[in-house]
Amino acid sequence: MDRNATPSALADAVWPAVPSGALVLVPVGSTEQHGPHLPLDTDTVVARAVARHTADALADGPYGPTLVAPALPYGASGEHAGFPGTVSIGHEALHAVVVELARSLSLWASRIVFVNGHGGNTATLDGALALLRTEGHDAVWTACEPPGGDAHAGRTETSLLLHLEPARVRLDAAVAGDTRPLRVLLPELMARGVRAVSATGVLGDPAGATADEGRRTMAAMVSATLRAVTAWTPDTRGRLTDPTAGSPLTQSAASNASNASNALKGLRR
């Protein structure tokens, strides 16, 4: 069996075993450069892991069956086009794919959550989910946002990959890139792309990355995703919000957070 497979993996199911009215999590990633030391599918690996462990934590909860769909490995990555290996389908194509995926899933699933691992997909998901919700689909999206994380291929993502897939991290090739805050870099990034500010593609510094830090970061992202799914309070863009942030968890959210903690103890690499 594939090491990433779980009982909630839709790809492993046969159709008579697929429950009607399931909650389906759809990881959305990218295929883009992540410096000289991280694989091109880094965002997809992270989104898939967040979705998988969220589904594990929800398995015994009040939401009914929870399934994880195969990850969407391509996104809107035009800002990385200056680096070989990057494959971007752009905003229009991504919008169409997300909309059609949700329309199809809605024929048998009750709720759909797109779990996004790439910041460049944000505007597209906003538009696609807003449209889907006007059509009456109970579809939403949420982001894998590491607390206090750096911009791209730095310490945060390197730690996550050291935790999730350490054999694929080339630490001997890791180098620091532009370490200025993303808010400072953003205007130039949008105008000229990543290569204009970092010849290596790194925005941040991988130095000091550890698998343990990656484990803690993954646990925090899964807990945040679990709270958002539990609350199910999408904004006008179809993005799930976390109304418990900065306040005590509700009894339901606290129970699910406990489930998540138990599931996270068994996080696989």
Task: Characterize the structure shown.
This protein has 269 residues and is of the alpha/beta class. Helix 1 packs across helix 6 (211-231) and helix 4 packs across helix 6 (211-231). It has helices at residues 42-58, 90-105, 122-134, 155-164, 182-192, 211-231, 251-264; strands at residues 22-28, 66-68, 109-116, 139-143. Mean pLDDT is 88; it is low at 1-6 and 246-269. The protein has a 4-stranded parallel β-sheet with strand order 2-1-3-4, sandwiched between helices. It is globular, with a radius of gyration of 18 Å. 38% of the residues lie in helices and 9% in strands.
Write a brief caption for the model.
This protein is of the alpha/beta class.
